Amino acid sequence: MDIVTGFMIWAAEASTIGVLLWTRWFYERQPFYFTWGTGFIFHGLGIGMVALRGTLPDFVSIEIANVMALGGIGLWVAGMMQFDNRRVEPLVAIPSLIFVAGMLLEPVRTNFSYRVALFHGAASVGYLMLIATVLWGENGRSQTRRVFATCVGIQVLSSIIVAVFALISQPQSFASGNNSFLLLLVAALCFIAAIMSGSKLISERKEAKLKLLAVTDPLTELLNRRGLIEEFHKLKRSHADDSGFLALIHLDLDGFKQINDIYGHQAGDEVLVAFGKIGTAAQRGRGSFGRMGGEEFASIMYVANMIEAASVAEAIRTTLKRQPITVGEHQIPVTVSIGIALAEIGSANLDTLLSAADRALYVAKTNGRDRTAIGTENDVSIVPAIDHADTPDTPVQANMTQQVAALRRIVAIGK
To answer: What is the pTM of this model?
Structure first.
């Protein structure tokens, strides 16, 4: 089999892969499938037109064909950016532009060996861009990405060798290149290995997406109960050597049934989503905010002390109260009742924290709602609230030292 036949086989395989990726895109509508598919189609058609040199006009089999083949490499880079949810940069056009710029030079345009060297040099740049995109993307240290980058790296080396041989031996056609077919075989093997690695990347992405769906609430896109449980154990492991506390904050929107009855369930859903954003913003890297179910939410946080946990809870409560949620033409006033439980890292038990936080939430509800309460092993205390300063003392009293400190902390957050 001569090298021209090898080119045609390569073109047919690349085009077939492109069509399969387009089919995948048609069903899943993921943009990277379409971009990759287009890249393979361009690359395959370009290589095929190069192989038909002598049958097609020189402008088609040289200029257009090589630009298309290199454009395919650029589209692979663009697809990888989309795969990692990154913005596609115009730099993906560099391989094609290198060839176009080189062809403006008379010695390159009229000399076969120079054109071969130019093409493979531009291809090497494109492959290096692909390696950089793979390794600097999401989870760039994964084993699969490293294997993929290695396969592409071998392709870079193969292209550089072809370019050097072309400059040294000065062949006048593909048939006169002594090592061309061997290098084409190596490139084909790397190409297949890269395709297999790419398939593994897609498979891993799907597995990660399924895992995320298992721990995510579909409406608010927050962690669900299972996700919060995993977050609790993750925080406990990561702070095992620290002297702080794990706080569980249980939040329940007040009168949510009335919101659904008055404004409709769609408005109720928008209230849940908006509240989720408020709760998430208040975390500030301390932990995670999630939806337990219905109108109940929770936060798992690592904090230095009870005051910090109460400050975060009060920041969420007062922010929600001050900012009615806009749904269409309606301004919906919403309040939330909150229960807090705290435990040292080493002895933190999720069931115990949940029980204590539930008791505290119940006290907050029965003492007028729109309150924050702290639950301990022995009792429950209402956190003093600056927006309830004129309200008579509630039946459950908080420790005065904690009241003063909490107030100072809350005021500091509001500044």
So the answer is: 0.67
